[in-house]
Amino acid sequence: MMADAKAAAQEGENRKGTGKTQRNTMPRNIVPREMNPTLTTALSADVDSFLKNGFLVVEDAITHAQVESLRAALDETYARTSGGEQFIHELLEEDSRFEFLLDHPPALSRIKALLGNCIQLHSATARVTQGEVPDQGWHRDGPWPVDPNGTPYGSRPGQINCGYFLDELTEENGAIAFVRGSHRNPASPSHKPDPRPDEVRVYAKPGQAVLFDGWIYYRGVANVSGEMRRTCLMCYQNSWMKSRESFSGPVARRFREEGTDEQRLLMGAIEKW
Question: Which domains are delineated in the chain?
Fold first, then answer.
């Protein structure tokens, strides 16, 4: 009994000596237990459509109140930081009103249905296209070569961008144009801004989200309206691919340290292996 009391007293002294409460600092395992989620009938239909076309329009992805909040946040951020540039990078660091987009269920459930549970954020970007901006050239976002069959081992890079359009797209302010099925085309696009007979123009509305493959041919059509065209772009990919952003800002660190397991995974909080 005396020995037990001495041991307890010594342990108390050891804790006091550190000046801090002892905590379990072992990192918890945030890797999902299963590669693929269980799909509903509706999600399975969305997957089939995306695999065929390379893009998908999601209805009611964000509410009217969320659209208004994002517009206000983006207008303030653009006025404060852009210097006239179209693109704002590391968007989550700019305003707390963007943060819900990281793991927003209507988009993320479909992205996980396509890429699996093991995904991370590639980048969070906004694009503000001012009036009188010419046609964008055809391009792909992903830098890697394409083979529709992947490799013999099954490897194929997966990246999906999610565009939340805060202004209704029209003939005047410019649609987003895709070439159906081009995400499996081994050839690169022409990079010219010329219209194509096989292009599909999507006139997205506020509240919708447009998911598109990182290797689909696409372009922004000219904005000749004299008004801004505003978009928030959340891009996701396989967890083992390199992200464009460093995720070194305070918001990214907070998500990695204090977020849910899914938020931590999305921000790359995986131990080296």
Answer: 40-148+156-254 (2.60.120.620)
